[in-house]
Amino acid sequence: MKKIIVLATHNKGKLKEFEDILSPLGYEARGVESLGHQEEPDENGKTYAENAYIKAKFYHDLLGVAVVADDSGIEIDALGEHFPGIHSARWANSIMKEHGEGYVNVNKYVIKELEGNPNRNARYVCAICLVDEKGETHHFEGVCEGKILDKITGGKGFGYDPIFFSVESNSPFGAVPEEEKNKYSHRGKAIRKLVEYLKDVA
Question: Measured in whole angstroms, how far is the alpha carbon of residue 124 from the centre of its chain?
């Protein structure tokens, strides 16, 4: 019988990444939506870790169970230090309002902004927070260094993946299978740290 982990997310892409990595290890990942909850806390933290904690604590208090939450973002050096960073989703939403729905329009916007700029350095960052049954807090982080491509490549992944080239895997995230991406992704690295912790306390 699989152990259940509640994930503080409504994002189906994120949920699938967690499921793909946790399932072979004997865990069943469930989103809060599947438990009948649509509420969302105000993510007003100043770091990825603070935002992850806000979400995990909110749903832990609401459900009374162990909850895992993550906060992640992309940092594109040419656009500013740690930018858009913790504001990645909100920044994308603002672009969509002006240029049309869908991340394809966001990615086209980023490509245009970086046109002619030799600095393509970027990274994905993920912070995971586990608030366990006792209410104790545990943090895990993963970073994936890369570069912004000059064109949309592949139709896999989600978010900024089609314009992100992973230096470590030497491949564009939009053109590789999910299991390959998970070996190198920021979220994959953070989840594996979480899993190692869970193994130790099991």
Answer: 8
Amino acid letter, residue 28: E
Residues serving a catalytic function are: 71
If you write DSSP's letter for every residue of 93-115 in order, what string do you get? HHHHHHH-SSHHHHHHHHHHHTT
Angle at 188 (CA atoms; ends 157, 199), nearest 5 degrees: 145
Pairing relationship of beta strands 3-7 and 27-31 according to DSSP bridges: parallel
Tokens 């438990």 sit on residue: 35
Give φ, ψ of 116 to 5 degrees: 80, -5
pLDDT at 11: 80
pLDDT at 166: 97
What was the pLDDT predicted at 202? 63
The ranges of the chain with pLDDT < 70 are: 1, 37, 202
